[in-house]
Structure formats: C-alpha cells, structure tokens
Task: inverse folding
C-alpha cells in the first residue's frame, strides 16, 4: 500500500511514528512543509523536515518534540558572546551540523529535495521524505506590536512572541511562484491513501496546499483523502493553532477545520470522541466522519489513530 502524508513538524512526525507501526509494510511518502524554514547565521534551517527526520530516525529530543537528543549549546553561547543573535531560537550543536551540511550542499547546487534525501541517508527514517518544494517559501505573520504593525517570520511569531499577539494575516511568501518538488505530484497521483495528520491546518498543511498544483493533485487524486482533527474540544491538541486559524477566519472547532479543508479535498475526517457532536455537522458538509480517540499519548495510541484513518479511507473509497 502506498500512503502519502502531508506533514508539518511535531504533530506530523508523531503521527508518522504511529502510522509506521500500524502499517509496517506500507510505502510511505511524506510531503513536508518548508514554509517554517528560516535562514540563521548564514545557514538554512528546515524545522519541519528535520523534526520528521529526527523523530523517525531516533534522534529527536522526545520531551521538546524538536531538536536533537543529548544536545549542547556551546555554539549558540559563543555566537551570543559576540552579540550575534537571534538568541530566542534554540539551535544546538548537533543540530547545527545538519544545517551546515544542508547549506553546503545547497551552495554546491543541489536542490533541497536532493539534500533532504542525503540527510535521510544517515537517519533512515523509513519513509520517503520530500520537501513540498525546492523553491523558497517563507511564512510571514502580520502583527501589531507596541502599537506598530509589523510583519515577522513565522518562527519569530511562534518562538519569540509565543503567538501572544493576534495573527492579523498569515502569508506563505513565495508560495505562488513555487513548484512542487520532484516526486510530489507523482506520489499523490499513484497513492492508495492520502492522509492529513493532526498538523496545523494553516501554517503546516495549508502552506503545503498553497503550492500551486498540490491542492489540485490531492483533490483530484484517485486515492481517498482522510484527515485527523488537530482541534479537540475546541482547543488545539498542542501548539497554538487557534491563533493562526483566527487569522484565516476559521473557528477552532473540529468541524470548522474540516469545512475549511472542504469536501472537494477531504473524503473522510476523524474527530476526537470529545467532539462526537461534530460528526453530523461534518457529514452534512459531505465528508464521512467518525469520532475516535485522537490524543497521541504514545506510539500505540497513535497507531490506533492511524488504523482508524486507514479504515475510514477504505470505507470512503
Ligand atoms: O519553541 C521552540 N521551538 C523551536 N523549534 C520548533 C519550531 O519552531 C516549530 O515548532 C515548528 O517550526 C512548527 O512546526 C525548533 C525546531 C528546529 O528544527 C530547530 C530549532 C528550533 C528551536 C525552537 C525554539 O527555540 N523554541
């Protein structure tokens, strides 16, 4: 079975761990969000691709859900001693090595997709990890800080500001001109199932779908498309998705997120048992819906979620 998953960072990576356990024989292709990418200290950092790669490759810091296990921060401290920031973004020494290799290969002319494949040679994540695009896309967020309207990089909004200000607009800069990376459209066209994990619907999956051709390829694929709600009981399971949902005028409810994706895209939608009331509303919108436990408390609970998603896909076929 060929499964294609559109994934953001922590939520996507943890879902993939459960999916691999639920479907060990499946050929899994991951289309990763690169709108969170940021250039720091002359290096290209790809947080979502790295989070998937480290999580599935056994190198993640399990408590944080991002960055490397057994990490040290000597380089960051030395840079700060020179007054070189930003200091609000936690890049560790081991993680720095990944960004150095990536930046060196990009400078030598390799596209991001080839660089990602090379990095995965080390980590062996057990999935084919593709960036959504080889072209630069950068999510920016408009905020009003101290009475002044500014546009900040998504990481500055997420990490420095902790999404404490209202997101007035969320713009995937460069998405309109970007092309899907090699293999992305082919994987969607030949998929048996397409899954949208409980990743952020705006800045993770929304950014992937904003690359011209990807939304059309998902919607037009022969495979059933099933998503899992990142909203449980009216609040994000983790992260601050509600802040960016508000920016696109979407309520933080499981049913509103399903309607936001739309019946043209989704064949099936899983909501948490706490949101069983939403099932009728989602089905009325033309999307098959089931209420099942959606808390990713461990690999077994997450594998059960993945099995439910595959079962709903089978029913929606
Ligand atoms: O909350 C934080 N998240 C950090 N993240 C996570 C990241 O900001 C976001 O969670 C994702 O981009 C959202 O998908 C990092 C991810 C990396 O791959 C590398 C470094 C960081 C650093 C931070 C950090 O300092 N604080």
Result:
């Amino acid at each position: 079975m060929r499964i294609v998953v559109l994934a953001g960072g922590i939520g996507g990576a943890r879902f993939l761990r459960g999916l691999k356990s639920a479907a060990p024989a499946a050929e899994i292709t991951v289309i990763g969000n690169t709108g969170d990418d940021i250039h720091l200290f002359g290096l290209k950092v790809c947080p979502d691709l790295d989070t998937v790669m480290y999580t599935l490759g056994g190198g993640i810091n399990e408590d944080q859900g991002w960055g490397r296990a057994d990490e040290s921060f000597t380089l960051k401290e030395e840079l700060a001693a020179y007054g070189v920031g930003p200091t609000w973004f936690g890049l560790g020494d081991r993680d720095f090595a990944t960004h150095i290799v990536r930046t060196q290969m990009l400078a030598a002319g390799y596209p991001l997709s080839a660089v990602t494949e090379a990095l995965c040679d080390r980590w062996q994540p057990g999935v084919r990890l593709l960036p959504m695009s080889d072209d630069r896309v950068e999510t920016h967020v408009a905020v009003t800080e101290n009475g002044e309207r500014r546009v900040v990089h998504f990481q500055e909004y997420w990490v420095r500001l902790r999404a404490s200000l209202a997101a007035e607009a969320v713009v995937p800069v460069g998405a309109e001109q970007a092309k899907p990376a090699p293999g992305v459209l082919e994987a969607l066209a030949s998929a048996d199932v397409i899954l949208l994990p409980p990743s952020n619907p705006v800045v993770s999956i929304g950014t992937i779908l904003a690359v011209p051709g990807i939304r059309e390829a998902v919607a037009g694929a022969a495979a059933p498309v099933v998503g899992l709600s990142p909203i449980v009981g009216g609040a994000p399971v983790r992260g601050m998705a509600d802040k960016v949902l508000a920016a696109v005028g979407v309520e933080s409810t499981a049913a509103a997120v399903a309607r936001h994706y739309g019946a043209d895209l989704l064949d099936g939608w899983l909501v948490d048992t706490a949101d069983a009331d939403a099932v009728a509303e989602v089905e009325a919108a033309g999307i098959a819906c089931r209420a099942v436990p959606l808390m990713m408390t461990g690999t077994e609970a997450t594998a059960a979620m993945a099995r439910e998603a595959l079962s709903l896909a089978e029913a929606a076929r």
Summary: Residues 8-10, 36, 45, 47-48, 50-51, 66-67, 89-91, 95, 155, 158-159, 204 surround FO1 (CB under 6 Å). The chain has a mean pLDDT of 97.
